[in-house]
Design a protein that fits this description.
One of its GO terms (molecular function) is phosphorelay sensor kinase activity. The chain is α+β, with helices and mostly antiparallel strands. The chain is about 50% helix and about 15% strand. A six-stranded antiparallel β-sheet has the order 1-4-5-6-2-3, with helices on both faces. A five-stranded mixed β-sheet has the order 8-10-11-13-12, with helices on one face.
Amino acid sequence: MINSLTARIFAIFWFTLSLVLLLVLMVPKLDSRKITALQDNERRQGMMLEQHVEAELAGEPDNDLMWWRRLQRAIEKWAPPGQRLVLVTTEGRVIGAEHKEMQIVRNFIGQSDNADAPKKKKYGRLEMVGPFSIRDAEENYQLYLIRPASSPQSDFINLMFDRPLLLLLVTMLISAPLLLWLAWSLAKPARKLKNAADDVARGNLKQHPELESGPQEFLATGTSFNQMISALERMVAAQQRLISDISHELRTPLTRLQLATALIRRRHGEGKELERIEMEAQRLDSMINDLLVLSRTHNKHELRREPLKADELWAGMLENAKFEAEQIGKTLEVVTPPEPWTLFGNPAALDSALENIVRNALRYSHHYIAVAFSANNKGVTITVDDDGPGVSLEEREQIFRPFYRTDEARDRSSGGTGLGLAIVETAVTQHSGWVLAEDSQLGGLRLIIWLPINNIRA
């Protein structure tokens, strides 16, 4: 087995080319219709026929008015059963051939006219033999034999030999399995590599031992790919560990700050400065929580997934959001509720993604939020509109970055951490979906989530 892909391609190319040349050059020589010399027994049979016809003509008086009938009677008398004799005069007149045979008779006469070297040739289901010399007084004739061909060549084979392009096409078809095998041997490891790359794109950082097999070039590529995965796993693990350590270290002074704030309140009562310190401490605690959630979401290579019904998945969250909207004097309307569409994913991640978007709309809207669900045979689309200040066109792609904030109304005074939409994008992307921001007809921002229906994990 050739392990080098380069050598395999080179060998198969030259083998296929050699096969094509061999067939093109050698196959025409196998055409049974080619003119060939007679065997000894056929030559003796022809000479016997020659002697009988000459003797018949010598014993029958010559009649100038009926000379051709005399010749006709002689060849009909001595023609072997199932065969026919043909005489050709020096002027080229053919006696004894049927009208439909005249073309092949003329063709054979043009190729074999030497009585010292008689030959034979097949024409479909007929075969012509000759010539043999017939002497009648001062006249000389050439005698030919028309007989059924033994083992006649099929019409398709005849057509193939008569049409060089058809012969070339058949040759290409014969070589096609070799080329298909070559293409398959090239595509198989490439498909494996593509599937492994797709896994990495979905955040599934696991090694693929099956890549380290096959041709040397793909084997080396697979080894490098797995080494890259190992390096990425180490980097991600180090990043996760660093974030966890930083969050833990931040939590300790934050807890002390909250205890100190409680002690100051107990001793000196409420104050604006104390409220400010407490608000910032709570915001810092919320930011640390969101940062840990985002980090865990990024690094959950294999989310637990299961079949889900869209109406059951988000029903509770939507009811809670309606209740919270009423408490702050706003209205949340589900314009078109979700139906029992089947999704395949992690219920906690998908529920959290929509909840973050709805809470984002509750935070920034003035009075009204509209949520709409729709679906087709490919996926589910969720649209969340608000009547808030909106986001400029230049900043819409940036709002999904961690900690990104706009310079307008959606700033730190809203109380957000800047991580909610980053968590949404990560969760939706892990489910092979997408999320984008547009202008809303309500005057604010429209956020759209698309998730595939029946998304089976690869």
